[in-house]
Amino acid sequence: xxxxxxxxxxxxxxxxxxxxxxxxxxxxxxxxxxxxxxxxxxxxxxxxxxxxxxxxxxxxxxxxxxxxxxxxxxxxxxxxxxxxxxxxxxxxxxxxxxxxxxxxxxxxxxxxxxxxxxxxxxxxxxxxxxxxxxxxxxxxxxxxxxxxxxxxxxxxxxxxxxxxxxxxxxxxxxxxxxxxxxxxxxxxxxxxxxxxxxxxxxxxxxxxxxxxxxxxxxxxxxxxxxxxxxxxxxxxxxxxxxxxxxxxxxxxxxxxxxxxxxxxxxxxxxxxxxxxxxxxxxxxxxxxxxxxxxxxxxxxxxxxxxxxxxxxxxxxxxxxxxxxxxxxxxxxxxxxxxxxxxxxxxxxxxxxxxxxxxxxxxxxxxxxxxxxxxxxxxxxxxxxxxxxxxxxxxxxxxxxxxxxxxxxxxxxxxxxxxxxxxxxxxxxxxxxxxxxxxxxxxxxxxxxxxxxxxxxxxxxxxxxxxxxxx
Length: 470
Fold this sequence. Notes:
Blueprint: H1 10-20, H2 28-51, H3 55-61, E1 71-72, E2 79-80, H4 82-94, E3 101-102, H5 110-124, H6 128-149, H7 152-155, H8 160-177, H9 181-191, H10 208-228, H11 244-247, H12 255-258, E4 270-271, H13 282-294, E5 304-309, H14 311-317, H15 322-325, H16 330-334, H17 337-347, H18 361-367, E6 370-374, E7 383-388, E8 397-399, H19 412-423, H20 429-440, H21 449-455
Parallel strand pairs: 5-6
Antiparallel strand pairs: 1-2, 3-4, 5-7, 7-8
Helix pairs in contact: 1-9, 2-4, 2-6, 2-19, 2-20, 4-5, 4-10, 5-6, 5-8, 5-10, 6-8, 8-9, 8-10, 9-10, 13-17, 17-18
């Protein structure tokens, strides 16, 4: 139950914000960030489609959709239906745990919003500026909602991306279709009956979490389609007596939904992830890489480590369960701070190949020598790492802001390097160059959504312009 006085008409005000956004009035900073997020999204989606162990099964499950629509899926030659394509793109984007994050809400906004926007944008032949404007709308709605829901979502066993991401995808698609305020309020009401995402995946390493972003993208399209057809959704979907704030969190605060709405963009606090693990482990990974330098790459056999974490972070990535110290699969490794620290200390390679170390006896031995301590003075995703033993100790290594946070520098070259490292598993160099060129021209209208859709199909990318409608 919410602990504050619920902001009245919050759903209505968010709908008004979305409808009122204009491409020609989009703040320059948000336009730049959205452009970077699109390129990052293509990279992580290509990586998920080519590297994640769940990719082939997901493609098989959507086989009936293949070749029966106009929606491009990153790395696939054939096109899919809108909802099927959005599901696959959203799921692939979230599969490596490398997609962008909004830390205050522990949310991955880009995976569902961009997947849904790409699908709708192809149907509508949307321009680049209209696409980016719709993405800003979706990011802002999902970020504000996830912040309002707070960590209390996890107490209810719910994943923010599955819930807030559904509303973000609905806002993105609703904006692209030009829904009225009343229609969008209705679409939000319908989305409220679709939003979900159980965190039971934490106990078995299942693939559910990856699908939360894909389901959010698909359901955002479905909710909007229903509202466009005149289907009436619930009012006050967020703030109502049985709305999302009350139903989906043990401790929600409605203020973030509308505070400084339209003047202060929560989207600008979205970060781009450098490591393929839960964002809440990234401060620990940064500290471990620095500690590795201090130890000259050699961890003494008698050394023990203590990592101090934000208490809410510790409940998700630490603990005493066996699968935290001995993760059995990629998902468990992504949510184990012990595994991430041990792997970084021993091998110093926090990329996707780190999961080749699952079951490594040296990594598991070191993981058992790491103690996690909750500390309310540590910021979210931050860490303080110290070592005890015969090696050089020194002062504890403190990381308040992890790499990739919006407070750190995010130059285009860093984003492009990450994109090429992941998308290079699917595309050759000319195709990579083409994708970069299309994305960079989205703000000016030189690149369109259909241009992007054409470029992300590997075989078609080398073809002719006339193949775009194939």
